[in-house]
Structures are given as C-alpha cells and as structure tokens.
Amino acid sequence: MPGLAAAHTFEAILLGVAILLLAATLASKASSRLGVPALLLFLAIGMLAGSDGLGGIWFDDARAAQSLGTAALALILFAGGLSTPWNAVRPVLARGLSLATVGVAVTAALTGAFAAWLLNIGWREGLLLGSIVSSTDAAAVFGVLRSRGLRLKARLQPLLEFESGSNDPMAVFLTIALIELVARPETPWWTLAGWFALQMGVGAAAGWAGGLLGVRALNAIRLESEGLYPALTLGVGLATFSATALVGGSGFLAVYIAGVLMGRAEFVHKRSLIRFHDSLAWLMQIAMFLALGLLVFPSRLPAVALPGLWIALFLLFVARPLGVFLSLARSRLSWRHQLFVAWVGLRGAVPIVLATFPLLARMPQAELYFDIVFFIVLSSTLLQGTTLAWVARKLRLEAAAERRPAFPIEFVPGLRTGSEMWESTLPDASPAVGKRLVDLGLPRSALVVLIGRGENFAVPNGNTALEAGDTLLLVASRVDEARTLEILGARRDAEDDDADPPA
C-alpha cells in the first residue's frame, strides 16, 4: 500500500533524526572528558552518518544546508545576545566593533593573498576564500567558552563573545561582495561601499527597534499560559532577522543587537526565557553541525589536506593575530591579552555556511573552496578549541572560578514595581559579616529572599547571622539599591569590574 509505505518512510526519517540527536547529545557529554570541543564531535557524527560514512545518508543539498545554517545562526546569535550582560559589554564595545570590522577585513585580506599565492588562483578568488574564513564563529566561541567554564580576567570573555556575535555581518558582506566581483569584475567599488553602509545601518536600526518592541510586547501582552512566552520571543527574534534582511539590512547584526537590548531590560519570565533560548541555541548548533557534516564528502578531504593545513596555519598564526593587533593597537590591553584574543578566533559553522554561497552561485572550483574551508574549520576547532584553557593558564589570564549557588527562584517584575532582584556575595571584609539581618538597618524596600551557603539554601529571618562567602538573593527598589550594597559592603555578582591591565 503506497500510503503505508510513505508512513513507514517518514517514521524511518524520524528515527534517523532521533538517533543523530541522541548521539550528538551523548557526544557533548563526552567532549569534556576527551578534551575535544563538542562542535567538532557534532561534525564528526554528521560525517560518519553521511554518504561516505557508515550511515550512508546521501545529502548534497547545499541550499537546504545554507537555509538551515542561516536560521540556526540567527537563533544562536539571539540567544547569545540575551545572555550577554550589557554591563559587561559596554566597556568593551569599541574594541569589539573594531575587531568585528577592521579585524575581519585585515584577516580576510591577508588570508586571501596567501591563498591566491598558494593555490595559484586570481586575487579576487583568493580574497573570496579569505573572506569566507575571516570571522570567528559565535556558536563555536559561545559553546567552547561556556561549556569549559573558563573564567577570564580583564573583561576578555565579554569582548570575545561580543566580537564573535557581531563580526558575522562583515564576513557575509565581504563574501557576497567578492562573489559579485568575481562574476562581474566591472562592478564599481563605490556601489559595494554603499551597500555595506545600507547593510550595517539598517541592521543596527532594525535591531534596536526589534529589541525595544520585544521588551514592550513581553511586558504589555498578558498571555494565558507561561508556555506561550517562548513562542513570543522566538517570533520576535525571527521577525527581526527576516524583516531586516528583506529590506536590505544585515539580519545577523539586527538579531544580535535585539538580543543584547532585550537582555539588558527587565521583562516577565526573563530567566526562564533565557534558559529556553539557551537550550534552543544548543539544539540549533547540533542540527547545523550535523547537517554540515552530512554535506561534506570526507573522501575529498585528503586531496585538500596539505593546502588546507597551510592556509589554516597561516590564518591561525599570522592573519588573525595581525588583524587583532591592528584592531586593538590603541587599546590598553597588554600583548598577552591581545595574543589570547587572537588565539580564540575559532572558526565554526559560519565559514562552512558561507562556503555554500559559491556552490549556489555555480562558481568554478566552488567545491574546492568548500572542501578547503571545511578542512580549515576542522583544524581551527581542533587546535584552538582544545587548547584554550592551557593557553589562558600559560598567559596568566585565567581567573579563579567562582562557585555560586544557582537559586531555584525567579523574579517576575511588574510594570510598576520599580524593584529588581540580584545576587551579592559577601566578601571577608564586609561590615555585615557576623551581624544579624535585623541589625543591619537595610532600607525598608530591601529584602533578603534566600541565602546560599556552600551547596545549601536557607530562607532567612531577622535573627539570621551572615557569614563571609554567603551569597544573598536580594530584592529592593532601584532607588535603594546603592544604599543596600553600601551597607553590605558588596556588589552585584553579575558585574565585572576587573580593571584593564596596563599596556
């Protein structure tokens, strides 16, 4: 019966998807023990399941892989923006933008020139290859830094995450512009400059509008079920990305800015929504890397191994460092900090997605570019992703890890409460250590909701005495926040006040 056969085929597809998801999830668990980034294992599983692997799944649809990668990257950037604290981003904003523009352009130019010489191809084709691998990958950087629990000094982590979230638009622009130049060499450069200004300007404005409207919608619309709010934020992210792209702006820039702006605001169910989008980002990473792993033919990689390795080494040790040093030349970061920023230039799914653009444009040698880019991504993830913690220790940039309890409570601010919830850890020198809560003289609006002590939680009362190292979960009006922190001799744990090191 045809209908029954079709049903069985669909069920077989679902079973295959389930097996791949389960394998990728278990691989993420094993990655920390093996010292290998989970993203590399996702790619490996996709390659094993593909046409050249044990699974024998034939997949060569570059357009489907590009569409999936674009949607997945948009959601990953939105989730990354939501979970990036604005207080940490604001001090590194200028440096991050310099890395995302000047750094990407320098990296693309140097890598492109080297690739043109090594492969004996035209300068436009070489610059196209350099542009494809010029940006760091948000999924790779977010995933590796956060899964390893690596804590860095001097605001390095927000700088790295902001750079990786904001430099994709530059790489996308350069890739599309170089494809246009290869196809139509007579194209005047000023038309490309105008298109770049349109992309960035519209993307920034649309992201700002999307973030503000998203926060207002969340606080103004009273949905019947809490489970509907993730659908609302998902719609905000996708609408910001797609609407911006339709009017000629950079959807990637817009969706990341929208996420950052929403992350700095207060809205209902904020913590649970951030957790939802973090989970969705992981699912998108798994799906994207599995699909890109299926798209590659491992049997073709040995033919490009030698040139791919040379380009990867040049990118890692020459082009990326020079791009970083030029971008941060006027910053106060020391050479050790700049060197670490250069080493965290992980390449991931974005270059592979961009490598599908020449395939869809039916450019000569497009398959060669794709295979070389894939090999560069494998080399970058393997070399850089496995050595981040080691390099941080060698450069003396790893900060002591702080173990703070994860409070099992969420604060849902009303529209007119004027109150905030935050966490503060009492230092040894706090004047509140050894005192009872009733004796502290906290403002009337301030309330200590929970105390985290070690791995345990306690609901305090007026007679509860505080100890050094206690993590307090507090609620207070915004006008009383400064006075409350002054009495406790503490600060908000979410803040990062590490001073920049001298150059």
Number of helical segments? 19
Overall average residue pLDDT: 82
Q: Pairing-aware structural class of the strands and helices?
A: mainly alpha
What is the 3D form?
globular
The beta-strand count equals 4
- CATH top level of the largest domain is Mainly Alpha
* Helical amount: 55-70%
What share of the residues does DSSP label as strand, in percent? under 5%
The CATH topology of the largest domain comes to Na+/H+ antiporter like fold
How far is the N terminus from the C terminus?
Answer: 75 Å
Strand order of the largest sheet: 1-4-2-3
User: In the CATH hierarchy, what is the architecture of the largest domain at level 2?
Assistant: Up-down Bundle
Order of helices and strands: HHHHHHHHHHHHHHHHHHEEEEH
Most strands sheet: 4 strands, antiparallel
The total domain count is 2
Radius of gyration: 24 Å
Q: Low-confidence spans: pLDDT under 50, at least 5 residues?
A: 3-7, 495-503
Question: What can you tell me about this protein's structure?
Answer:
The chain has 503 residues and is mainly α. The protein has 2 domains: 12-394, Na+/H+ antiporter like fold, CATH 1.20.1530.20; 419-488, 2-Layer Sandwich (Alpha-Beta Plaits), CATH 3.30.70. The protein has helices at 2-34, 38-49, 62-82, 86-89, 93-119, 123-132, 138-147, 156-166, 168-183, 189-220, 229-246, 251-264, 270-295, 301-327, 335-343, 349-360, 366-385, 388-394, 481-488, and strands at 419-425, 447-453, 456-458, 471-477. Helix 5 packs across helix 8, helix 5 runs parallel beside helix 9 and helix 7 (138-147) packs antiparallel against helix 8 (156-166). The model is unreliable at 3-7 and 495-503 (pLDDT under 50).
